[in-house]
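Design review, sub-item: ligand-bound model
Attendees: FS, YL, KQ
YL presented the inputs for the zinc ion complex:
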Amino acid sequence: MSTFQDRLRIPWRGGAKQISIDSALPIFLQPLLAYIAAQSVWCTVLVSMVMLLSMCYLYSVFVQFLPRTKFFFVWTLTSAVLLLLVFELSVVPFLEIMPHENCVLMGLVVSSGICFYKVRTRADLSCVVHANVGDETELVCSVYRRRFPPSTFHCRICQACVIKRDIHCVWLDCCIGDKNHQLFVFGVLFSAGALVYGAILTITTVCHPSFYIMETVLLPDDCSDVYHDFMIALCFVSSIYCIVIAFLLLILL
Ligand SMILES: [Zn+2]
Ligand SMILES: [Zn+2]
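KQ shared the predicted structure:
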């Protein structure tokens, strides 16, 4: 077990940076899951089910035993990078995406990226970090609660009191409080927009689009042969993944 506890080191400016095994896991897991899911429609269904259930399980385990894990944050970053790579390197070369459509999508991606980056940098502004009192942090916290607004809530993961705390977002690895809540909402809306738009562009590229709504919106016609070619299957699976995340994001909002 101690080997699992060992830390990986990657070269970084200002000395090597340590990465724990659990944080590095999504970088290897996601390409593998995408590869398996792209094999057949049943593989896609199976991987989706397994992923959804194991996420719930991992969440409960990490919250209990490893609350400061970067697993979910690295998962978010890896997903964003992989989805962008699939779109730009596999969907765009089909030459069915107009440059202005690509620009709109990139605009949404960059906007959500900026929002989420600011959510993380502004998260500390809502935090009232505890004085260093060792194991008695909980005790000090109750003092803080009396002195700060009643909506102030102690976050066990950030080890701080957060003013008007909404949630601790494991996917961004920070608390959502009064100083970053608005940015968080905008970030979620931009990313949901980017995911849905990217998925529509991808599916209409790989699924023989033919139907039109009011002569403007293109709809996929036949997706039955997407699994015959691995790259097309990968594009299709990515767009399904995008739609599921966008759906979950909008529900959680
Ligand atoms: Zn506290
Ligand atoms: Zn927190």
